[in-house]
UniProtKB/TrEMBL annotation:
InterPro entries reported in the protein's UniProt record: DGC-Regulatory_Protein, GGDEF_dom, Nucleotide_cyclase, Rev_trsase/Diguanyl_cyclase
Organism superkingdom: Bacteria
The GGDEF domain, residue ranges: 184-318
Descriptive protein name: Diguanylate cyclase (GGDEF) domain-containing protein
Length: 334
């Protein structure tokens, strides 16, 4: 075997052409990718910086880029060396198409020259993809954990309602809405359960907790998805009702809430009954909407309702004085 033949055998991606462009030999890997090659122009198209170049011009180029006519998506890159007889020897590589070519043609380490780092690059590519996949999964897990932690931070663990922190966030969002040119007003409803302490003391905390969960479910059923329902204490609840600022509408809703809360509940094999009192503060009644002021006024209206009986609703006057007081009774209640 002469030196020329030995050198070509060591280059599985070589292409040897004569001055007329006839292919004299092609490396085994190159043939596997582009099939039998007999004529340079029939098999390859110079592209990129060498687009339209002749064989002589390819020999003078720093880099050559050849698109396979059999597989236009495959572009090979390399270097061409001119021979004394006018022919050329190309030593080609896969470039950025390495990974796709290896997969499409099922190439292995044996298809590359021993000095070629193609498989090492493939390994690094696959390792990088695996690492990126793992990082992506880890980020998803972290994001899910963050969402769970955030939900837990703003959620009452017993009832699944908002807690005080979640309630205040919702209040702030509603407060911002009242600052617009066309303000969207809302109602803050403080609700306290009547006869709950007697139930808790007589039947135990487990039954009391079950009743609180039942109340939460009933409130969810009677309110809208845009409303915020929060448990702020033992048997204390607060509702934020966007878009509702009419006292008559609030009294009607209050009657529905009280009727729903007063419905008998079967817990641990026995029927229990409680009621609820409500105090309301309406944002449109305040020149300056403030959480502490509205909560305090709603609580004061609630305590007035409890003093006057069970199942009552009272509306705080806000900045409107005594003219803003309202109330009613339904089901003997609101």
């Amino acid at each position: 075997m002469n030196l020329e033949r030995a050198a070509l055998m060591l280059m599985p991606m070589h292409l040897h052409v004569d001055a007329a462009g006839r292919v004299l030999s092609a490396g085994s890997t190159l043939q596997r990718m582009v099939g039998p090659v007999r004529d340079f122009d029939a098999a390859f198209e110079p592209v990129g910086p060498v687009a339209g170049a002749s064989l002589a011009q390819l020999a003078a180029a720093e880099r050559v880029f050849l698109r396979s006519r059999a597989d236009p998506g495959q572009v090979l890159r390399g270097r061409a060396i001119a021979l004394a007889d006018g022919g050329l020897v190309f030593n080609l590589g896969l470039g950025i198409g390495l990974v796709e070519a290896i997969r499409n043609h099922e190439l292995t380490d044996r298809d590359f020259a021993p000095s070629d780092l193609a498989m090492e690059f493939l390994f690094l590519h696959e390792a990088n993809n695996a690492m990126m996949d793992e990082l992506s999964q880890a980020n998803l897990r972290l994001e899910e954990a963050r969402r769970r932690a955030e939900a837990q931070a703003f959620t009452d663990p017993l009832t699944g309602l908002s807690n005080r922190r979640g309630l205040q966030l919702s209040f702030e969002a509603l407060r911002q809405g009242t600052l617009h040119a066309a303000p969207g007003h809302f109602a803050l409803v403080a609700m306290d359960l009547d006869r709950f302490k007697e139930l808790n003391d007589s039947r135990g905390h487990a039954v009391g907790d079950a009743m609180l969960c039942e109340v939460a479910a009933r409130l969810r059923a009677i309110t809208r998805s845009c409303d915020t329902i929060a448990r702020t204490g033992g048997d204390e609840f607060v509702l934020l009702l966007p878009g509702i600022s009419d006292p008559a509408a609030l009294e009607q809703l209050g009657r529905r809430i009280v009727r729903r809360i007063e419905a008998p509940a079967r817990i641990a094999g026995a029927v229990s009954r409680i009621s609820a009192s409500l105090g309301v503060a309406i944002s449109s009644r305040y020149a300056r909407i403030d959480w502490s002021r509205m909560e305090s006024d709603a609580d004061a209206a609630l305590y007035r309702a409890k003093r006057e009986g069970q199942g009552l609703l009272r509306i705080a006057p806000g900045d409107h004085g005594e003219a803003g007081l309202a109330g009613g009774r339904g089901n003997g209640g609101v």
